[in-house]
Amino acid sequence: MAKFIDPFCSSCKAREKSCFSRLGLPDLDFLNSNKVTTFYKKGQTIFHAGRQPTGIFCLYNGKIKISKLGFDGKEQIVRFVLSGQLLGIRALLTGRSYMAFASTLEDSTVCYISKEYFFKITEKYPEIKNCMLTTLGQLLEEAEERMTSMAQKPVRERLAESLLFLNNIYNTEENPDINHSLASIILPREDLANIVGTATETVIRLLSEFKAENLISINGRKIILKDIEGLNKIARLQF
């Protein structure tokens, strides 16, 4: 189990990867004095859809999924949040309510700053807002690519693509010594099926096929990619 850590903004490695990376020392002290750090256990919710944002969240460590609920009540994972990334950008900048909910995939530490203090900082550092707008643009691009994949690729190809994507997610800079091809993907099969856009039973069957083809190994809920090149070839197939 991860231990609770209340990081100082001036020495926070996650901040170095965030939109707050260019703050000067006095402003880092201001940020540190006005942030609230919370430890969330795996599976806990950070914010709910429909709620009005009161500030911005920055992930210090751990992993978070952003999800929506369909009309049938089925969860749809929209994106993942990693260390140094911000949560609730769109809602805060537009003044609208959250359109999704955020929950932890593993024990996570999250820092929060109210919009009052956040906007004081952005008045002094306009590049923070520019950074957030760039982030929104990247998220939109990723969403468009995913829509194209869902529309044009068969399930087997989408699963290979999703495994490669998740391998990068689970092989973060927090684990620089890990072999890229041996990163363990720890994700419920239901969540994986959600990402691929198919039934859980189909994902389980295809994972068994990938294992038989020596593309991956499976140990309980852990999936380890053994043949990155082979999966990449499958993910790039065109029909």
3D architecture notes:
This protein has 239 residues and is α+β, with helices and mostly antiparallel strands. The protein is built from nine helices and eleven strands. The strands form three sheets. Strands 1-8-3-6 form a four-stranded antiparallel beta sheet. The protein has a four-stranded antiparallel beta sheet with strand order 2-7-4-5. α4 (115-124) packs across α5 (126-152) and α6 (155-170) packs across α7.
Task: Supply database-style keywords.
four-stranded antiparallel beta sheet; elongated; 239 residues; Jelly Rolls; Arc Repressor Mutant, subunit A; 22% strand; 11 strands; 9 helices; 2 domains; alpha+beta
Layout of secondary structure:
Elements: H1 13-16, H2 25-34, E1 35-40, E2 45-47, E3 55-61, E4 64-69, E5 75-81, E6 86-87, H3 89-94, E7 101-104, E8 108-114, H4 115-124, H5 126-152, H6 155-170, E9 184-186, H7 189-196, H8 200-212, E10 216-219, E11 222-225, H9 228-235
Antiparallel strand pairs: 1-8, 2-7, 3-6, 3-8, 4-5, 4-7, 9-11, 10-11
Can you tell me the CATH class of the largest domain?
Mainly Beta
- Please count the beta strands (DSSP E, at least 2 residues each): 11
* Count of helical stretches: 9
Rg result: 19 Å
At CATH level 3, the topology of the largest domain is: Jelly Rolls
Could you estimate the helical fraction of the residues in percent?
40-55%
Mean pLDDT: 86
How are the strands of the biggest sheet laid out side by side? 1-8-3-6
CATH superfamily descriptor of the largest domain: Jelly Rolls
The main pleated sheet reads as: 4 strands, antiparallel
Succession of helices and strands:
HHEEEEEEHEEHHHEHHEEH
- How large a portion of the residues is in β-strands, by DSSP E? 15-25%
CATH-defined architecture of the largest domain: Sandwich
How would you sum up the global shape? Answer: elongated
Q: How many discrete structural domains?
A: 2
Uncertain residue segments: 173-181
> How far apart, in Å, are the first and last alpha carbons?
45 Å
